[in-house]
Every structure is written in C-alpha cells, then in structure tokens.
Amino acid sequence: MTSEGADINTTLFLAEPASPDLWDAAFLTNQYQPQHSLCFSFMFRIIVAADDTPVSRKAISYGLRLHESIPQSSIQFVFAVGLNPTSNTSINLLGSLDRTNNLEIEHDAHNTENALRQRLPDKADLQVITGEQSVEKLIEDYINTNPPDILIMGSSNRTGLEKYGIA
C-alpha cells in the first residue's frame, strides 16, 4: 500500500469495542497489545493531549506503549491552558477579576505541568500551549498547524470524540 510514495509495511487497526459506551476506553486500555513492533517506512507522528487527570494518565500510558511498538515514531505531549480573555471594559473590577482568575489558572497550570514532567519519561517533548481561548480550540489549532498521524486524548465524555467524528 502506498501513501504519498511511502510504503506502509504494517497497518494498525483499532477495533471498535463491543459496547459504544466503552469507545473512549478502547483507546486508553489494553485493547491494543502489539504482538510485535509495527514498522512504517516513514516517521509516524504521535501527539498525546495531556493534563494530570486519571483519564489523561491512561492516554499518556497508551501513547507511550504505542510509541514503543513503532520504532519509527515520534511522540509529543501537548498540555493546553485556556485563559480568560482580558476584559476591555471601563469597569475596573471586571478586568481585575479576569487578571486574578488568570493568575490562578496559570498557577494551577504550572503545578499540572510539573506533575506531567514527573510522570513523563526524561527528555519527553512536552509542549505547553497557553492562550485566551478554550482548551479545545487551543488543541484544535495546534493539531491543525502540526498535524499528527494519530492524536490520543483522554475523555470522560463523548462530546470531544463526536466532534472529531471518531465516536
């Protein structure tokens, strides 16, 4: 099989789980256990959207296992921090509240980043993206600018997966 001139030696298939309610978990559990290393004739790019939630920890674990099973792969972890837009209002109190809230968000994000760095392997590529947008929009913009071959993200609900047509 050829994709833009690159021969693909092995194709990775992820089977849909028996219950639609388990769809998110299919990507995060042991359903994919490689019997041997997968081989691609191009660099296979994996991005894991990560934070320090339990479901994200499973996504990180899955991404690392997938990366280990594909010798010609790179893995990158992306942590997005959505700040509140700064207010351009003449009411000083509202602008002050936004700045204070953003300081709290940035403080929490710093703690989460430290927790992620402790959880990830040494020299892991962790990109921290900060912007005055929602986390979903920040991640969407990042993957549209830096398209991966596979995006792994933990989700405790189906809305994010449905948005990307995966569910």
UniProtKB/TrEMBL annotation:
<dbReference type="InterPro" id="IPR006016">
    <property type="entry name" value="UspA"/>
</dbReference>
<feature type="domain" description="UspA">
    <location>
        <begin position="45"/>
        <end position="163"/>
    </location>
</feature>
<protein>
    <recommendedName>
        <fullName>UspA domain-containing protein</fullName>
    </recommendedName>
</protein>
<dbReference type="InterPro" id="IPR014729">
    <property type="entry name" value="Rossmann-like_a/b/a_fold"/>
</dbReference>
<dbReference type="Pfam" id="PF00582">
    <property type="entry name" value="Usp"/>
</dbReference>
